[in-house]
Amino acid sequence: MQDSCLSSGELLILADLPGDVNRDRWVAGDHLSTIITYWGQTGLGPEYADLSGNGTVDPPDYSEVISYWGTGLPPQPPSGVPEPATLGLLLLSGWALLRRRC
Question: Domain count of the chain?
Fold first, then answer.
């Protein structure tokens, strides 16, 4: 089994994921939105949803996104950042403690 960490001097090369329009390594709703946004347009290239390379954003591009829907590496939530509700509770309880002291 390989270690998931790279040591100094190593280079990680990620292959293109089929259906991954924005290269975020996950095929999901935003990719389909991009297909719909550029539907029927020509000469845009894969970065603008022409995944098939036929020069037009059309059914083959849509099919590629649908075929690979949900594949790749799901986005990870940021670590170490509390959600807003937690921060709000912390501030409210701190305020209540300070108010009690006075």
Answer: 1
